[in-house]
User: Fold this.
Amino acid sequence: MRFILFLIALPTITNRPLSADRTASSATSASFALSASSASFTRSASSAPPRLHFFPANDPRFQYTGRIDFSDPAQPRFWAPGVYLKARFDGPSCKILLEDEGLNDSTHNYIAIVVDKQPPRRIKLIQKEDTLEIAQTTGFFPDKKTAAGIHTLTICKDTESGIGWLLFHGLLCDKLLPPPPRPTRRIEFIGNSITCGTGMDLSVFPCNQGQWYDQHNAYMSYGPVTSRSLNAEWVLTAVSGIGLIHSCCKMDITMPQVFDKMNGRANTVSWDFSRYQPDVVAVTLGQNDGIRDSTVFTHAYLDFIHQIRDHYRSAQIVCLTSPMGGESLTAALKNYIGGIVASCRNAGDTAVSTFFYSKQYHTGCGGHPDLAEHQEIAAELSAYIKRLMNW
Assistant:
């Protein structure tokens, strides 16, 4: 089946606030190419849309989760993979207004869109400003009956901070409703490209084709999948290539340096840790460090746990092996992490534990886990966190 997605470019949506009671009665038609993992989209010009009310991004009925820059509340900006927002609207359609940083005029973010309990749609933005229509005509609803009524919408950033920021301007819909209740559980996942969801989704571009980020899919990576299985919110604090004491690819940053930032790749925009206090912090580092001097690595890891503990006084901290690690690296990490956790416990911090994955997951691009393997990783980790937290 082929679906058609209409994207309408509104004349101006940036650099000025918009009133909550503004309506959209006309728009300039445009056609944009899209990529999607669960549907085949074609390009089409849209007919005149119905009158819809504009609800700006600072409307309190939008529910945000993740490291988001609200210095301009009407234009929240975010870099990290997995940042997401939820909204509930009444009516057969709505339009999402996004702005993409568009690094180098050619790099564009992917997002995941989830409507109600339908499978996520993975979409690549190709404009500086994009308006995405959620409607039966764009394949989000199978029929008019399903389109009618109240819907829950989730928008998630699928690509990481190195691909640039996304900015949410607001929603066009008939009626915006209060958001769904937040889960009471919270998890933060600290890591590298595995945690970002790099190299996992081959549904649009096979390995070694397209841009390096074309296989990113943060929404379906192990962290968010784990969180959803446990009815928990998630935050991904992750940068591809990053390490604890050594990062790959000539990167001049390590995780302890960027842990307190919203833009991890550029090591900029400070984060206020009081805005998200997790119950569990899952740390997956070491893949890019490789096998190191055990004393140097363990001392740095202990320092990083202390850094985490300074911000999250009551969280359970779980130290994990690398899911894509080979036999030698996995053996080394088990040795390092075992000693690190024993040291923490001997010092009185008993809320630190280990979890070792049962096997290597590496059939995606560049030796990363693929979509199916992220599901397996999440199943392993979910079972452990469920026991640990009595969830």
